[in-house]
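FAQ: What does a multi-protein file look like?

Like this. Sequence, then tokens, then the next protein.
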Amino acid sequence: MGNLHSMAAVRLLRPAPKRSALLADDENVALPSDALSSFALPAVADSALYQEKLFDPHSATPIHMAHGTTTLAFVFKHGIVVAVDSRATQGPYIASQIVKKVIEINPVLLGTMAGGAADCQFWERELGRRCRLYELENKEKISVAAASKILSNITYYYRNHGLSMGTMIAGVDKSGFGLFYVDSDGTRLEGQRFSVGSGSTHAYGVLDAGFRWDMEPEEAYDLARRSIYHATFRDAYSGGQVNLYHVQEHGWVKISADNVLDLHYAYESEKASA
């Protein structure tokens, strides 16, 4: 997770985006007319170019986004397991050890946070609002694919405007379990296993080595915990505790929240007694 080290004071305008740009077209899901009435943009002729220059490392006063986190999710026989760490950093400074990096969008949908904390929290909670409006209008819950498409359309519309997001949308609908990766460039990928963040390469190593489709739930929980733990051990920007969720047929359940220090000593004891 990261934030801006510096920010120029600018007067903000609030133009309304084109509604057509925020449609979940491939799922035939249209947003309500008031879905997004405004968004603060710098008062310049070309806001995208302005943001690009702000983040250019060769500019006189560049803004640097310092990222750090580890999140993962995988689909298996009994649903989807989602696991995240809880450390927020501002460069080398640890800002918090108790950040909630799983956004509970609704009773059957979860979102994860990697990148800018404010960006992920704001847009995933906005996604929750839109999912609720869809449910009220259509008398059924939105599909996981449609929810992820709405988020990707939003981030695609605001690409090059300084957003920093690497999220996963996990959930269950009438067609089964769904897992999607969505980032701030508008990229949207469906998959069976994802890990996002500065510690993701470490987590992938453990996850790929231990994954089996027919795992029992307890085996899946242990694999997810170990994957996040090993990432926190090797990546200084990840840490705190491992928050673990299980998306089941009727919705998600929070399984546990384990301090990585406790896990460290537990795993070391296992190795010593082996």
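And here is the next protein:
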Amino acid sequence: KQWYQRRVAITAGDIIQNSKRKGNEFTQEFSRVLPDALSHTYKSAVEDLKTIKQIDRILQIWKEREIFGKDFIDKLQSYRPKGLRSESQSEDTTDGTLMSPTKKRIRSTSDSAPDPDTVIRSLINLERGSALQDTRIKQQFSTIPNEVWNVQAVEKITDRKRLETLLKSVDSSYELLSQHRIRLQTEFQERNKVAAMLKEFVMHQKEQLRSVESRLTEYQGKLQKVQAVRSQLQSHLNSLPDLTTVTKLEPLPEPGSLFGAPDD
């Protein structure tokens, strides 16, 4: 259930952020149901810190990118279960004991590391909405007359009608270039954010790699010890006599023969 809630939260977050570029229709519709939805999710995930942190991260992104107003985000964050430790407290202590700088750095990296689903979805959204990959824009650019780019060529034109036609082309080209510049600026900002997300993700994976490598070394040592004990047991077992090969045992002497009177 918690895994499903995280996926729904991630998907809703992506839909709202991407739709914001095209207008406020989706954000207005979502704003009607988000308070009840997040209140229910926070309550049902009170024991699932990973889900709560995922929601916290989404709300923080919405606040930074101004997807919703600050008051509305504050209202959504007010549904967060009380008494949970903040991120700063989680970095400094664990089970009430102070953490070393190294452990603090590892813990901080782990807590801030984005969910793999978030990374994958962000990369897919970047490529789908990339201005650089928009073939329609490329075709529109290819139809712009050469005179638009050449100031000196304009001075040679003396025909008024031709100048008016060229002015319309320049105006439409200016509008097209302005819109494309805005898209490129937005994409530049999004790619910077995704690059920072990937950096955190890679750092987390490196920490995980070191942890797994350390655990692997530990259990390889344990396996070698078990193998040594196993070899010793097998060797000791082989040194014992095989009772199954004894076909007949000599009868025990009579008690009288053992304790009989000595001969005169």
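Q: Is there any per-entry metadata?
A: Some entries carry free-text notes. For the entry above: The beta strands are 93-94, 97-98.
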